[in-house]
Amino acid sequence: MRVLVIGDFHIPTRAKSIPQQFTPIISKGDFDVILSTGDFVERKVLSYLESIATTVWVVGNMDFFAYHPRERMVNLEGFKIGLTHGAQIYPRGDPLKLYSLAVKLGVDILISGHTHVASTKLVKDILLLNPGSATGCWSGSGGSLIPSFMILNVEGDRLSVSTYELVKSKIRITTETFTKSSDGKAILRAT
Length: 191
Prior knowledge:
Elements: E1 2-6, H1 23-27, E2 33-36, H2 43-52, E3 55-57, E4 71-76, E5 79-84, H3 95-105, E6 109-111, E7 118-123, E8 126-131, E9 148-155, E10 158-167, E11 170-180, E12 187-189
Parallel strand pairs: 1-2, 2-3, 5-6, 6-8
Antiparallel strand pairs: 1-9, 4-5, 7-8, 9-10, 10-11, 11-12
């Protein structure tokens, strides 16, 4: 299963569009599903994602065009995934508070946004993912200003997380692989 994880667009208030270097990867990515952390700002950005694949999304703190859940849960081939924008977490992106939310939701993986900084963190037995900002726009805490998104590949009990970042007009891809523990109750870094 191939999954696009993306969010924090802020189009057109902070950015004009998704970087052109990303467009072919996103448009022709042959995704089974898209998971989005919100902050589209305009509905047309969500419509673009929905034209590519089934899109599961949460409302961001700048999405005034729709009332939608702040948290969603999906099951992808046995991985329980939670999705939240993350505006309720203070300080922004705090790993221990995100971990607590993941425990409360009963998920193996929690995907959040709001910080505009891509990150992959294994906290205890839960994987915390943040795709960063698809446009690399600024956030209330600064952000990385590096456009980014993630692609997940799920095969059985293995999950690879590829982070795509646009650095100096070139795409940099970093991939990490994780697996479920033998009892299925924890996420582990694959060896």
